Automatic annotation (TrEMBL):
Subcellular location(s) per record: Cell inner membrane
Organism: Pedobacter puniceum
Record key words, sorted: Cell membrane, Membrane, Transmembrane, Transmembrane helix
Top-level taxonomic group: Bacteria
Swiss-Prot/TrEMBL GO biological process terms: D-glucose transmembrane transport
Function statement: Intake of glucose and galactose.
Listed CDD domains: MFS_FucP_like
GO MF annotations, alphabetized: D-glucose transmembrane transporter activity; galactose transmembrane transporter activity
Similarity comment text for this entry: Belongs to the major facilitator superfamily. FHS transporter (TC 2.A.1.7) family.
Identification of the protein by name: Glucose/galactose MFS transporter
Gene Ontology terms: cellular component: plasma membrane
Bilayer topology annotation: Multi-pass membrane protein
Primary localization class, coarse: membrane
Length: 422
């Protein structure tokens, strides 16, 4: 993306903005990857089938689609910095809904809380991703986003391990005992299980509220994306809609598919491990392994982009790795198959950092609208895992992973050709 002089204040502010945005990426990584634990947890606590349990991911990620237009308006009103604070407050409200949901063991209220959290994240993502993208030179944008990705995925690696050790503890024996209980005793045990999330989510609410206040009081510089330098203005002359940028529209589709396969890799691996006969106390850590693989990928991105490999070439390589690991998961079994799903974290790592700068390149005054459109693509995390859940009920958890192969093929197409279409 061509920089304009209006971006210079952000660049002069040094590393301080990167540290602040890094803290944001850590927080929404922590909240996002709790879903991998909530899916098997709520399946037991609320007595759900596979399809119903994956409504957890649907409710969370569909908020990105619904709220993306609102996010653009919020940023136009509040700006980037205060928009981030607003997003954090909304996330705290969503987390607050988990407390009455747990007390009443009401699945719909859990889903509402997840939707509200996703709504806050939609605003936060719409602000933070283009902010870090245009905070420096375009050719190193993927490197900066990779740094943010490390913050995000380290939090994501910690989240399921921490929450899983609390709410999934002894769930296998818990399920076995339920079958021998009367309806009254069974309901009491399920109520006790549901209450396990209350204390962790009270802590999450406090952290979100404190961070919102700190962001509001911070010295983060505002960036004027409405200003364009001469070359960007000339190329955008006569354009009246963000939909007139084919590389952006294809980027949204690519992001939709990428988020879908990333969520599948992270949120299904615990349930998939259980279906392969692995003990719950072991399977609890599988999402952590997926996210550690992503952190390794991000580190490679920081080292290699753009010095040794271009952003689009990194995307090509990652798409091919995704196909290879998906096929290995389908045609192997046990720990080998689970390991292949975990290694999808490595394949997925550089996709987000590469897609954002490629899709936003040259948008100029359309950057906020383009970012909002890309955030709508995050709804892939709602739709594709839900399809995976339906395929799991129809066939089995392993064969349902076929859904990932065409997704990775389209991502490869975007890296090869789609991102270059003007």
């Amino acid at each position: 993306m061509t920089q304009s002089s209006s971006y210079q204040p952000a660049q002069k502010s040094g590393l301080n903005p990167i540290f602040i945005i890094g803290a944001l990426f850590f927080i929404f990584g922590f909240v996002t990857w709790l879903n991998s634990v909530l899916i098997p947890y709520l399946k037991i606590a609320c007595e759900l089938n596979h399809f119903q349990s994956y409504l957890v991911a649907f409710a969370f990620y569909i908020a990105y689609l619904v709220m993306a237009p609102v996010s653009t308006k919020a940023l136009n009103i509040f700006g980037f910095k205060n928009g981030m604070a607003v997003g954090l407050v909304i996330m705290a409200i969503g987390a607050l809904l988990f407390i009455p949901a747990a007390m009443t063991r009401t699945y719909n209220l859990f889903l509402l809380g997840l939707f509200v959290q996703g709504s806050g994240l939609a605003i936060l993502q719409t602000a933070s991703n283009p902010y870090i993208t245009i905070l420096g030179p375009a050719e190193s944008a993927a490197k900066r986003i990779s740094i943010m990705g490390i913050c995000n995925k380290l939090a994501g690696a910690a989240a399921p391990a921490i929450l899983g050790s609390i709410i999934l503890k002894d769930t296998k024996s818990f399920e076995e005992n339920l079958a021998n209980l009367s309806e009254v005793a069974k309901a009491a045990q399920l109520d006790e299980l549901a209450a396990r999330v209350i204390t962790p989510y009270m802590a999450i609410i406090a952290v979100l509220a404190i961070l919102a206040f700190l962001i509001y009081r911070s010295s983060l510089p505002e960036i004027d994306t409405n200003a364009e330098d001469e070359s960007v203005a000339a190329s955008n002359s006569g354009k009246t809609s963000v939909l007139q940028f084919p590389h952006l529209v294809l980027g949204v589709i690519t992001l939709f598919l990428y988020v879908g396969v990333e969520v599948i890799a992270g949120d299904t691996i615990i349930s998939y491990g259980l279906s392969q006969g692995i003990e719950p106390d072991t399977a609890t850590f599988f999402t952590t392994y997926t996210l550690i693989a992503m952190v390794v990928g991000y580190i490679l991105g920081i080292i290699c982009i753009p010095k040794y490999i271009k952003q689009e070439n990194a995307l090509k390589l990652c798409a091919l790795l995704g196909i290879a690991f998906a096929m290995l998961a389908i045609f192997s079994s046990g720990y080998t198959s689970v390991l292949a799903i975990a290694l999808l974290g490595l394949a997925n790592a550089l996709m987000w950092p590469a897609i954002w700068p490629l899709a936003l390149n040259g948008l100029g005054r359309f950057t906020k609208a383009g970012s909002s459109l890309l955030v709508m693509g995050i709804a892939g995390g709602a739709v594709i895992p839900l399809l995976y859940g339906a395929l799991t009920d129809a066939f089995n958890a392993q064969q349902a992973y076929w859904i990932m192969v065409p997704c990775y093929l389209f991502i490869w197409f975007y890296a090869v050709k789609g991102s270059k279409i003007r």
